[in-house]
Amino acid sequence: MVSIKYFILFLLFTVALNAQKTVEVDLRKQRIYAKENGRVVFMGAISSGKRNHRTPRGTFKILGKNRFHRSNLYPRPRGGARMPYMQRLTYGGIAIHQGYLPGYPASHGCIRVSRRTAQKLWRWTRVGTKVTLHNGKRVKPKKRRYHKRKKYVKKRKYIKKRKYSKKRKYAKKYKKRRYIQKYRKRAYARVRR
Q1: Domain of residue 70, CATH code
Q2: pLDDT per residue over 125-162, tens digit each?
Q3: Of 82, 112, 126, 161, whose CB is crowded by the most CB atoms within 10 A?
């Protein structure tokens, strides 16, 4: 009986270790999702590459991790910007690291995350973990049903048309009056001279 319990615990432990961990980054929503066996474990906000330095889309693997990394490129020309909890995705300089989050794409191609998210990701991922960067899946909106509302909308359009037609009539009358008044003023001015 005891050996069966230990065997079950051993199986559960090995399943937990071999769980398929993936990281998904939605560049449209500016969110990062840590998934284990398809379920979201935790998520956080990001700031991806700005217009001139777009973050590449695709599937990558974490190539290396460095707790206290400093940039070789930025700020130009010598580099030296701090990039704590750096997890390299490409050898071209794209990585996930801790940084300032203004709420919109503002980095030079890297994926900035908050300190808390960076620490969680650092502990949770390993070298070789799959990272997917995408623009988000467009979901088709559901068709709305307007059975009763359509009639109401038609009535409103009809009422608006009537109002506009009345306004046009008044506008024409008003223009005629203005023209007559101008003409009278001119005639009066000529007679006066």
Answers
A1: 2.40.440.10
A2: 999 999 999 987 644 444 555 555 555 555 555 555 55
A3: 112
